[in-house]
Amino acid sequence: MLWLFVIGITFSTVFLAEFGDKSQLMTISFASKYDNMTVFAGIFSGITIVTILAVAVGTILFQLIPVTLVKIIASLIFVSFGIYTLFYENNMKMKIKKKKGRVLWSSFIFSIFAELGDKTQLAIIALAARYASPFSVLIGALIGMATIIGISVILGSKLGDIVESKILDLVAGLLFVGLGLIFLLEALFIG
């Protein structure tokens, strides 16, 4: 029964850590503009890869790549995405809507960089080390991630129905630039 306890602890930890996190905000942003199933599939696939890495290689991964470097790279990607959203999103929106592969690929890539070095991944590494039950930790983490991504996709799609696209782009762009700068400062000064 320890495995069930570990799944429950991991699910709770991941769900709470991701609630209001940059990954959730990114998912809401994507889902407010693009096909919900495509966004869910892309983000969940990317997060699954990062979660498997966290469970499988955990501490080895972060011994090879300093967490600060991962955070700096992720922050620069967020700033870039924010600038793209602010200045180029409206021009590309119609083209992207017609090509689900681009949305799938973009959400996949952004979810990977959003989660690398994130507090949730560090918590998953710690749980895997603490309980020495990698499969239970993986199952709990993936269920937690799928739940929060599902909630975020629903929120984003409803938001996209109510708020004008230009306003969503402005808010999302500013949000991603702001988050990217905060993460960069955190990486440089807190570590």
Q: What are the main properties of this structure?
A:
single chain; 191 residues; mainly alpha; 10 helices; 0% strand
Polypeptide structure, described:
This protein has one domain. It is built from 10 helices and no strands. The protein has helices at residues 2-18, 22-31, 36-56, 58-64, 67-87, 89-98, 100-115, 119-131, 134-162, 165-189.
List the helices and strands and how they pair.
Layout: H1 2-18, H2 22-31, H3 36-56, H4 58-64, H5 67-87, H6 89-98, H7 100-115, H8 119-131, H9 134-162, H10 165-189
The strand count comes to 0
| Shape field | globular
Query: Measured on Cα atoms, how large is the radius of gyration?
Result: 17 Å
Order of helices and strands: HHHHHHHHHH
Structural class: mainly alpha
Number of helices: 10
Helix content: over 70%
Oligomer: single chain
- Major sheet, described briefly? none
Mean pLDDT: 78
Point out poorly predicted stretches.
none
Domain count: the total is 1
N- and C-termini, Cα separation: 37 Å
Strand content: under 5%
